[in-house]
Amino acid sequence: MFRDREETGKLLGELLKKYDFDKENTVILAIPRGDIPVAYEVSKKLGIPLSLVITKKLAPLRKPEAAFGAIAPDASQVVDEVYILLTRFQNTNHGRKRMFKKTPMIALPITDKDLEITLNNAIINSIDIIELRIDQFENKELNHIKEVANKVKSYNFYTIATVRSKLEGGSDISDPERLEIFNAISELADIIDIEYTSTNIKEKVKEIAKNKGKLLLMSYHDFEKTPSEDKIQKLIDDCKIQGADIVKYAFKANTFEDVARVMCITNKNKDKNIVAISMGEIGKITRVAGFMFGSLITYTYTGQSFAPGQIEVKKLNELIEFFKGG
């Protein structure tokens, strides 16, 4: 923790001294108000001129102290797409209930089997998001996949489109086939899930999501162990650098220390739109209480579980209600 912005600027200036700046062609830009004291100290340390980027905060009418983006004089703007999605979600019946109770969004992974029964059960059990586990569909023809997605949207659910790779627990579908499915489904999904390890198609899937105005969820699964805190932090940072709007990680918990490590690192990064899961029996608590540490979504099941440690939806709702406190 730094004493103030002035101290922060001096320390940052010292760190930046090791870089060889072309001082004649470099300028430090600061966004008023908070960045100016920091940038001023950096400017003094490096001997580089200081200028300002004038922006206007974009804030909700009923919550002017909050911000979901900024706009510049040339009308260019940056917005937090996840904030906008969550705000739209709050305006649904399910959303008002969740936000009022301060509980996480509950996602139900589904296949194309017994679709109407599953969706009706989802409504009864207050499911918020349907994850289309397309890699588990019996029929993977594009028209059928779009029919299923349209049916889900007709029930007014938010949707995650997932074509999980075999490496991370999915079916053996080639990368070109997966890319074709993502292209076909992108119009009908709110969130597109691509694995951090899917290096051959990750960038193309990101382009599909961004071009269609969808959120990109970058996921990583380890069914054997929980990595060190440094490795989890690197995963989060890499995913954000690579364009993820939401970062999801699911690790096998072999000890309670594993669970504590996942929750602590999630809490440190709770402003980065994290979905955090410890898989297995030991990790079940994260599916109930993860939102207390900043995890946005928890996954459940009706009938058949998709991952180790998932909690059946009725039981999950009961436990969340019990643990959420006042």
Output the keywords.
single chain; 326 residues; Rossmann fold; TIM Barrel; 2 domains; 12 helices; 20% strand
Provide an overview of this structure:
The chain is of the alpha/beta class and 326 residues long. It has two domains: 5-79, Rossmann fold; 92-323, Alpha-Beta Barrel (TIM Barrel). It is built from twelve helices and 14 strands. It has helices at residues 5-16, 35-46, 81-90, 93-101, 115-124, 142-154, 175-185, 202-211, 229-241, 256-268, 284-289, 313-323; strands spanning 28-30, 50-52, 56-58, 69-71, 77-79, 105-110, 129-133, 158-162, 191-195, 215-222, 246-252, 274-279, 297-301, 311-312. The strands form three sheets. It has a nine-stranded parallel β-sheet. The chain is globular and about 65 Å long. The two termini are 30 Å apart. Mean pLDDT is 88; it is low at 93-101.
Q: Main beta sheet, described?
A: 9 strands, parallel
Write down the CATH topology of the largest domain: TIM Barrel
The helix count comes to: 12
CATH class of the largest domain: Alpha Beta
Mean pLDDT: 88
**Uncertain stretches:** 93-101
**Number of structurally distinct domains:** 2
Order of helices and strands, N to C?
Answer: HEHEEEEHHEHEHEHEHEHEHEHEEH
Total number of strands: 14
Shape: globular
Q: Strands across the major sheet, in which order?
A: 12-11-10-9-8-7-6-13-14
Radius of gyration: 22 Å
Q: Any guess at the CATH architecture of the largest domain?
A: Alpha-Beta Barrel
Helix percentage range = 25-40%
Class from helix and strand fractions: alpha/beta
Straight-line N-to-C gap? 30 Å
